[in-house]
Design brief:
Keywords: FAD, Flavoprotein, Monooxygenase, NADP, Oxidoreductase. GO terms for molecular function: flavin adenine dinucleotide binding; N,N-dimethylaniline monooxygenase activity; NADP binding. Belongs to the FMO family. Belongs to the FAD-binding monooxygenase family. The radius of gyration is 23 Å and the shape is globular. Helix 6 runs parallel beside helix 8. It has 2 domains: 162 residues, no CATH class; 166 residues, FAD/NAD(P)-binding domain. The strands form 8 sheets. It has a 5-stranded parallel beta sheet, covered by helices on one side. It contains 8 helices and 22 strands. It is 26% helix and 19% strand. The protein is α/β, with parallel strands linked by helices. The C terminus is likely disordered.
Length: 396
């Protein structure tokens, strides 16, 4: 995790049910506060003593009787009726080929940690996602020269509007249909941000919300102040020179690829498939392998922690009813195999690997709430049984 990383969802909408983020946290918490929050959550719910820290899992294998064997890196096995894989799939970098022969350094941002790595260098960041824009801002401040290359135009959403975290505005006023929300908020962004082509950016080739949101207030600031230059896609490289699709070129020492990740779950790849996004019911339940679940595989347009909370509540409800032999469990098992709801919320997401299996968070939450209510399961965690002392971490 790089030092300048902050959440792109606000603290208001990022906490687990029953354990909201503390009031003294920043609107968009930095990584140190997120670590503090997760530690306090684990302590409050008695999880810390149940976690095997410093232990890697080598393999998850299905047994003939339907149980699962988890083998640790040191060879120790354990058998379980159910396994929840929470490793996520954003660990294995997608590294596109840059035609030509670049003589400088090329590396993926998965290994980037600090702006100190950029000092004294001419840096090109490739990619317009949230991490790419964050790191481009680091380069704007620390590098000798900084540029960012994007193949397409994006909608840049500021972190604050009208003095409030932007993701909290959706709950203000009456609920609107998605097409109207796109139109009104898109117009507002055009007023706030102006014409992106003035800054060397491309106009978006898609409607608002049809790609993963880029929530960043600082990239446009640095472009406006000449701290960084925007370029279109990379065409080829020759020596230290990078040529772009608009015919322009420049020399660089370092190319940082903020180009996303490929789906891999090495500990259980055979059960999650080779596709970019695994076919999991509600992004959590294996359709083919009973007793196998995943948390952290959902791709959506909002903060993830509240959705993780809802997923874990569903998993817990299903496991509990399965152990009790209740009819709900058999009913839900049939839904896992056959129910394929449309969770796009009416949005037409762009055709890209990142958006394979992508869901609209509002549509997802609405459907999960409906399913959970029918089963009698909660969708939000409860406060811990015993009060716990929250972390004393303070804002520097």
């Amino acid at each position: 995790m790089y030092e300048s990383a902050h959440f792109v969802s606000s603290k208001t909408l990022s906490g687990f049910g029953g354990w909201p983020m503390p009031d003294h946290f920043a609107d968009y918490p930095p990584q140190r506060q997120i670590l503090s929050y997760l530690t306090s959550f684990a302590d409050a719910y008695g999880l810390s003593e149940r976690i095997e820290f410093g232990t890697a899992v080598r393999d998850v294998a299905k047994n003939a009787d339907g149980t699962w064997t988890v083998t640790r890196a040191d060879g120790r096995p354990s058998r379980h009726a159910q396994v929840v894989v929470c490793t996520g799939s954003q660990w294995h970098p997608n590294i596109p080929e840059i035609p030509g022969d670049f003589s400088g350094e090329i590396r993926h941002t998965v290994g980037y940690r600090s702006s100190d790595e950029l000092r004294g260098k001419r840096v090109l960041v490739v990619g317009g996602g949230n991490s790419g824009c964050d790191i481009a801002c680091d380069a704007a401040r620390a590098a000798d020269h900084a540029e960012i290359s994007m193949r397409r135009g994006y909608w840049f959403i500021p972190k604050h509007l009208f003095g409030r975290p932007v993701d909290t505005l959706a709950g203000v006023g009456p609920r609107m249909p998605k097409w109207l929300e796109q139109r009104l908020f898109g117009t507002l962004l055009r007023i706030v941000n102006g014409d992106p082509t003035r800054l060397g950016l491309q106009k978006p080739d898609h409607k608002l919300f049809e790609t993963h949101p880029t929530v960043n207030s600082m990239l446009l600031h640095h472009l406006q102040h000449g701290d960084i230059t925007a370029r279109p896609g990379v065409l080829r490289a020759e020596g230290r020179t990078v040529h772009f699709t608009d015919g322009s070129s420049n020399d660089f020492d370092l190319i940082l690829l903020a180009t996303g990740y490929v789906h891999k779950v090495p500990v259980a790849q055979a059960y999650f498939g080779d596709e970019q996004h695994p076919d999991l019911y509600l992004s959590s339940f294996s359709r083919e392998h009973e007793g196998l679940f995943g948390v952290g595989f959902i791709e959506t347009n909002s903060g993830a922690y509240q959705l993780f909370d809802a997923q874990t509540q569903l998993i817990a409800g299903f496991v509990q009813d399965t152990h009790r032999g209740l009819p709900n469990a058999a009913r839900f098992a049939r839904m896992i195999r056959s129910d394929r709801p449309d969770l796009t919320g009416g949005l037409r997401f762009v055709d890209s690997p990142r958006h394979t299996g992508y869901v609209d968070s509002s549509a997802y939450t609405k459907y999960v709430t409906k399913v959970a209510a029918a089963m009698g399961w909660p969708t939000e965690g409860r406060p811990p049984a015993m009060p716990a002392v929250r972390s004393k971490e303070t804002v520097a």
